[in-house]
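Dock fe (ii) ion; give full complex structure.
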Amino acid sequence: MEFVDIHGHYAWGIDDGIRDLDEARAALQNASKVGVRVIAATPHVISGTHFEKDIQHFKERINELKKEASQVGIEVHEGSELFLNHDAPTSIRSGYFIPYENTKYALCEFDVRRNLPDDEDEVEEYLYSFKSHGYTPVVAHVERYFKKGIDIDRVSEWVDMGYFIQVNASSLIGTHGSTVLKNAEALIENNLAMLVASDTHKSEGRRSPATLVDAYAFISKKYGEDTAHILMHDNPLHILHNEPIVRTQVKKVGFFKKLFGR
Ligand SMILES: [Fe+2]
């Protein structure tokens, strides 16, 4: 399997991801080993904290990463993961984020440490800021924002607005607990998940590129290989090519089929 992994903190020394050049080399090597052929480097950009100069610095580091990655046959696209807070509309308006290179798609996230606020002013308004400036938000690890179970109707509304939904490989292998795992499954089962990525922070372990292999096996077994391929190869590549994505067509397994395994 050739993976296209468009959420990862490979650009070293600028956030809580890969620490230094040595670890970046190890992460790239491990990624290459498990079949990753294309990645996007998406360092955390914090609204209200990072400005023009920081963005330039991040881009320079991503350029250094490109040279390193080419040595192990991995193509790197630039990007960022914009943290959405009350400064997000200003950051988006001012261009203090890095969309996926040469595209109108941009990765963004909410605070994973707390439950997603019910207030539309703190969530939907920020997502809409992207749309009003001509960008499609790719919402990172949606399964992690709902501590008491996923709100499918709310996520469906985001999808109706044209936003993209990303799920973490780590969530599918249980790294963030059973609720997050169930949330991730529900997103796939409702055909709302559009891509799965590693969100790599480390060169090894449960936040590394290796999680892609286990997530691929999990999705293939439960939802079919076609689904795994769309989520981990086709759609991420469509995004990097600034193309529309395709929706999965997972069929819900009925109660009796589940019970009797047929
Ligand atoms: Fe991330």
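Observed: The chain has one domain: 3-260.
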